Amino acid sequence: MEKNDKTTGTVSGIIANLVVVDIYGPVGQNEICYIAHNEERLMAEVIKVTGKQAYVQVFESTRGLRPGSKVEFEGHMLEVTLGPGMLSRNYDGLQNDLDKMDGVFLKRGEYTDPLDRKKKWNFKPIASKGDEVVAGDWLGEVEENGMPHRIMVPFKLEGTYKIKSIAKEGEYTVDDEIAVIEDNNGDTISVNMVQKWPVKVPIKTYKEKPRPFKLLETGVRCIDTLNPITEGGTGFIPGPFGTGKTVLQHAISKQAEADIVIMAACGERANEVVEIFKEFPELDDPRTGKKLIERTTIIANTSNMPVAAREASVYTAMTLAEYYRSMGLKVLLMADSTSRWAQALREMSNRLEELPGPDAFPMDLSAIISNFYSRAGFVYLNNGKTGSITFIGTVSPAGGNLKEPVTENTRKAARCFYGLSQDRADSKRYPAIDPIDSYSKYLEYPELQKTLGESLDEHWLDNVLKSKDVLLRGKEANEQINILGDDGVPIDFHERFWKAELIDFVILQQDAFDKVDASTPLKRQKYMLEKVLGIVDTDFEFRHFEEVGDFFKRIINQFKQMNYSEFESDKFKGFEKELDEMLKEHAVEEKKKEEEAV
Amino acid sequence: MKSQAFQKVYTKLNNITKATVSLTAKNVGYDEMAVVNGRMAQVVKIVGDQVVLQVFSGTEGIPTDAEITFLGNPPQIKVSDELSGRFFNAYGDPIDGGPDIEGEIREIGGPSVNPVRREQPSQLIATGIAGIDLNNSLVSGQKIPFFADSDQPYNQVMANVALRAKADKIILGGMGLSNDDYLYFKQVFDNAGALDRIISFVNTTEDPPVERLLVPDMALTAAEYFAVDKNESVLVLLTDMTLFADALSIVSNRMDQIPSKDSMPGSLYSDLAKIYEKAVQFPTGGSITIVAVTTLSGGDITHAIPDNTGYITEGQLFLRRDTDIGKVIVDPFRSLSRLKQLVIGKQTREDHPQVMNAAVRLYADAASARTKLENGFDLTDYDERTLDFAKDYSEKLLAIDVNVDTDTMLDIAWKLFSTYFSKAEVGIKKELVDKYWKK
Ligand SMILES: Nc1ncnc2c1ncn2[C@@H]1O[C@H](COP(=O)(O)OP(=O)(O)OP(=O)(O)O)[C@@H](O)[C@H]1O
Ligand SMILES: [Mg+2]
């Protein structure tokens, strides 16, 4: 789509942020243009062309815009600028650096450079003169916040090139030439540390994309233990408002064992973004000891920012993730909330008077969502190294109804389903992930089962499945109790119910705001699960159903104290010892021993 | 909002619908205001030289030869200290018989605050109402609505909150306010001697409904003036946002837009978010806090208006009549303040978070016991105790007529715990139990 003479046009119609432009030359679908309005230039994207008119969605407010305004088409689609210096930045949905903007309020038509052009980076070559390279191959690297940031052959290049020269180790700005490469015809291309890429096109400079097979530790017990997500996996978190989607995503992004975390705040609250950039600079990355903000990039298109840029924001975030994945890094990408993105599509589709699909969403919603999720994944790069994008999106179903189009279509695309339940949130059982309805398809992958067996032990999977079973049986027992009454069922039912409650309170529930409880390393998760299952396997003896609840409540309380204590600390061990004593009160084995002794 | 300079007058309308008129006109800007036979209107669509105007008070009686003038600007308001103590209509014209305001002209519905220029909200707002301060603490810079059926005393509670909040300015945005409620606010603020801190933009039930679309932006533009230019803490009260949303749907239906859920426009989320996101804490000390009212029909929070609101605001305060005690309470189940964790246990006593959670959990147990009872089952001793606890908790803490400080609320809660439960049943961290358990 690159062209030398820019096509021009004039504005002929305005309906909110949909603008109709009379065009005087060729334009492409999704091409970017700028509308001149007084001193300002408003960025817009072509979304439909009919005859001599282009329909463009403006990424800004169109207030005051008049027909007759001049339009200039740029000859390329919406692009991001990729290069070192993107970590710890706060970008808007179009990758403008928010910190570089003046004033308290966002100014229409103000676009800022995502990169720092003056900063010098210490470049170290990886490839050498004479090497044959293709797009995405590593030429060298600089260090970005302690992470290797690879400088790659521009993704846009096709075919094979030969390195004609490569810069020596030293200090360079992003715009300095670091290599010259030559194609088969002897034409040379100068390469620096910056490249551009259209956000709606996936970066595919990898060799192979196998099924994910490795657990990605998040520190959230009801994910890691019960429904694990994988490196390169996809998951989504639907839930009515206030059930804990954002808190859960923030928890995962603080704790997950990722090299890079990209957070797309898509049509949600500005204060939640503020929370990230106020708190992350204070918090340590548990694995590197560096500050969390150093591995994080924020893409903020909050709900009061222009709607069209909201749609762009998730693509911008994904493209940044793909860029870092190509460097062989483990990227975690979060989008909150993908429903707002779908709504942005709906607003535009309605303005275009397209034939609406279910709930007035565009007909191709399903394909759009699937395409997006399919950009995540674990990859083998051309040099044999691996990289991954794990993607977790939230979904905000209208009226909390999971049968609405965005949830249904996302269910088809994402492999992990973490459904948040209103009931659980109401009774403060956080995180409110429904243990029965939620699932991780990866648990069925033999590849994952194998690595789980290796990293934990061969009983792990059985234990996980057993816990799920206990939870389900507990739920059934509870239903019976509710129908038949406490003394209308055998005491056994109460025991079954309370054993499920035990798993619920000790394993599933986790206080995201407690220093210790917030994140549980896998090793500790394993210890706790085995301890809890040990109790589930114990035969107890109760004379009356009330004894069951009383007993288990005390046990749960004891476990909670353990959850709040440093693992294997004296406090932890103290509580555990008391717990073990308590257990003897009703354990059948113990009773027998006592009787035998007498 | 009177016309200023010389303007071209148009005298021919091509089309008239219930809400809009259209004419052939040149050099008109999107969103621009116009006057059609003395009625305020705004540009909502431009196609070539065809300009569509939305007439706020409706088009009844407008002839095809109506006089149309364009004002050359979007809706605006004059801001200065003179706003204090005054009452205005939706266009920002005085309705209290006082003089016009002198001040700087500002466009309403202006741009958003750059997120990186925000400060994290951190200042607790105490209201004395335990259903709020204990379970759902408010923080300056927060946006939170009351969810209430229309027969709940939400305006009274809101007035109480406003007066106790210690804000520098209180700005009331009344939409479809009944005349009685309008006079009620006026009187309460007057009695409290707070009238000079209060600015009101009011659209009453007697005014055309579509006019209320301007009210939140008027109120918030005034709020931005005081929060940004004067570094003041401003509390904005918006009542009733359901009536605001209804006006949105009237407009979009009349303009033949495809409705989404509950015949609301597909842009409802963005429309509401633009308003609520004006709540902000600035690093320089100024802040805008929004307390709104969203009336429900029959407690249904899945309706598109409360649903979208819930997704935007930082929690909600759910008012409900508790028949056990015959009082209105702040329902601990459906209510939530998402910013509370920024202040509780930090600006309030350390035991606050755990006490709050334990009490709500026990209250939930009472709800299950009640279900058991309704299904005709025997109650256990524990069930009985939770029911007694629930009643006491409701009466002493949840009722909206409670007015004590936060430490007292916590003490009351501990007292209730020890009266009805054992330590294990309450399940709070041992250190806190050791320190606060009441014998
Ligand atoms: N794990 C948790 N531990 C303790 N409290 C929690 C937890 N998760 C959620 N909460 C509580 O629930 C509130 C709402 O959570 P959150 O903001 O994540 O909801 P949400 O699902 O993102 O809502 P929305 O769709 O409106 O954005 C939080 O402010 C917090 O009070
Ligand atoms: Mg959220």
Task: Describe this structure as you would to a colleague.
The complex is a heterodimer of chains A (598) and B (439). Chain A is of the alpha+beta class and 598 residues long. Chain A has four domains: 8-77, Thrombin, subunit H (Beta Barrel), CATH 2.40.10.170; 121-198, OB fold (Dihydrolipoamide Acetyltransferase, E2P) (Beta Barrel), CATH 2.40.50; 206-443, P-loop containing nucleotide triphosphate hydrolases (Rossmann fold, 3-Layer(aba) Sandwich), CATH 3.40.50; 460-597, Bovine Mitochondrial F1-ATPase, ATP Synthase Beta Chain, Chain D, domain3, CATH 1.10.1140.10. Helix content of chain A is 33%, strand content 23%. In chain A, α4 packs across α5 (338-351) and α13 packs antiparallel against α14. Chain A starts with 7 loop residues before the first strand and ends with a helix. The mean pLDDT of chain B is 93. Chain B starts with 8 loop residues before the first strand and ends with a helix. Chain B is elongated, with a radius of gyration of 25 Å. Chain B has three domains: 9-70, Elongation Factor Tu (Ef-tu), domain 3; 76-107 and 140-313, 3-Layer(aba) Sandwich (Rossmann fold), CATH 3.40.50.12240; 352-436, no CATH class. Classes of the chains: A alpha+beta (598), B alpha/beta (439). Chains A and B meet through β1, α3, α5 and α13 of A and β5, α6, α7 and α8 of B. Magnesium ion binds next to α2 of chain A. Adenosine-5'-triphosphate (ATP) sits between chains A (239, 241-247, 268, 396, 430-431, 511-513) and B (310-311, 336, 338, 341).
